[in-house]
Amino acid sequence: MQQIIELIRYATMAPSGHNTQPWKFSLKEDGIRIFPDFTRSLPVVDQDNRELYISLGCALENLVIAAKYTGYDPEVEYFPAGEPEECLLVTLKHSNVTGDNNLFQAIPKRHTNRREYNKQQIPAADFSKIGSVPTKDGVTCLVLTEPDDIGQIIDLVREGNRIQMNDNAFMDEIISWIRFSDSEAEKHLDGLTSRAMGSPSVPGWLGRMFMRFFVSAKSQSKTDGKNIRSSSALIVIISEKNDKRSWVDVGRSFERIALTLTTLNIESAHLNQPCEVPQIKNQLQQHLALGSAHPQLLLRIGYAESLPRSPRRSVQQVLI
Ligand SMILES: Cc1cc2nc3c(=O)[nH]c(=O)nc-3n(C[C@H](O)[C@H](O)[C@H](O)COP(=O)(O)O)c2cc1C
Fold first, then answer.
1. Confidence band, pLDDT 50/70/90 cuts, at residue 288
2. Is residue 54 in a domain?
3. Residue 55 CB–ligand 1 contact under 6 Å
4. CB of 20 closer than 6 A to ligand 1?
5. What is the CATH number of the domain that holds 53?
6. Which of the residues 93, 198, 200, 268 has an alpha carbon 20 to 30 A from that of 230?
7. Quick count: other Cβ atoms within 10 Å of Cβ 192?
8. CA of 204 to the centre of ligand 1 (A)
9. Distance CA 117, CA 158 (A)
10. Is residue 308 scored above 90 in pLDDT?
11. Looking at the 3D structure of the chain, how many domains does it have?
């Protein structure tokens, strides 16, 4: 039993949009179910729950990697009929083969690093390791390093900030998930903490006032532009289809890439605005000549000192 609880703990170390941790788990005689927790959805930035299912995919991939490492042969079923609610089902059979130790060890070390990076080049051998991470069927990973591409993406991120940050509902939603003080972070054990974003702990009222009156689309775009230019490369994760199963597979593929980056001491941070705003997503599709394929996640990667970890709720809090 302790082993199963530990597998769930590893699953909860996954990244999620705004660190909402939109998952619940339950135990079956021979496996674990992962349910979407729609009480933790982001109805403004993620209207169709696309990023919620990507986050579930990240948790699923952690669970699979941890299960393989622990000596199981996990079998995954997507939204199987006959379950009490929509879920991902991981059936655990014992196996003699142990899984990838490096990826398993990377799970607790992986984190989003929003610092400015140091422009250091990524060695060719590491690029080829990133390029050869196995992604799920219908999911691909594009690595961008050309200055023209980077310049275009900076423009799209700026346009995304302009649309999102001038929308009061977007600002209300993100502010509601920021934990400005250490005590707010400890109380909720979720959300975007000041410290994980590279800022000091401040009283909640002060942080909220700062966000409302001093953070603008313009200031955010300036920071994003500087951060992108400080990065060694950009990564776009693309899927052929745009449905629930594909979103889960994007999450699974992304998590493997993020863990591989961690094993190479390469940091990563998201800039998903261009994938979130429909009209900008079209421009990104055209710029990258994706045809009808869907850009799902946009990340910058590079080198920087690490940042404090984001909190997670305990297994007891996510187990139903
Ligand atoms: C689907 C998805 C979307 C995300 N979108 C953004 C984003 O647009 N901007 C950002 O800074 N971080 C984004 N993140 C990163 C999360 O905020 C981060 O995973 C979460 O705060 C937990 O922190 P950790 O990754 O350090 O564990 C996203 C993560 C996921 C899985």
1. very high
2. yes
3. yes
4. no
5. 3.40.109.10
6. 200
7. 20
8. 21
9. 19
10. yes
11. 1
- 54 CB less than 6 Å from ligand 1? yes
**What is the C-alpha to C-alpha distance for residues 255 and 102, in angstroms, rounded to an integer?**
13
Closest CA to 177 of 16, 63, 8, 58: 16
Q: Does the beta carbon of 312 sit less than 6 angstroms from any atom of ligand 1?
A: no
Report d(CA 79, CA 244) in Å as an integer.
9
The pLDDT of residue 97 is above 90: no
Question: Is the CB of 18 inside a 6 Å radius of any atom of ligand 1?
Answer: yes
Residue 243 lies in a domain: no
Over residues 270-274, the mean pLDDT reads 97
Tens of pLDDT along 222-260? Answer: 999 999 999 999 999 999 999 999 999 999 999 999 999
Q: Whose CA is nearest to atom 10 of ligand 1?
A: 270
- Enumerate residues 6+ apart whose C-beta is below 8 A from 151: none
| Domain containing residue 53 | 2-110+309-318
Mean pLDDT of 274-298: 97
Q: Rounded to two decimals, what is the model's pTM? A: 0.97
42 lines ligand 1 (CB under 6 A): no
Among 272, 280, 312, say which to mutate for ligand 1: greatest number of ligand atoms within 8 Å of CB: 272
Q: What is the mean pLDDT of residues 100-107?
A: 95
Domain-embedded: residue 290: no
pLDDT of residue 295: 98
Asked if residue 131 is part of any domain, the answer here is no
User: 218 Cβ partners below 8 Å, 6+ apart?
Assistant: none
pLDDT at 98: 79
Nearest atom of ligand 1 to the alpha carbon of 307: 26
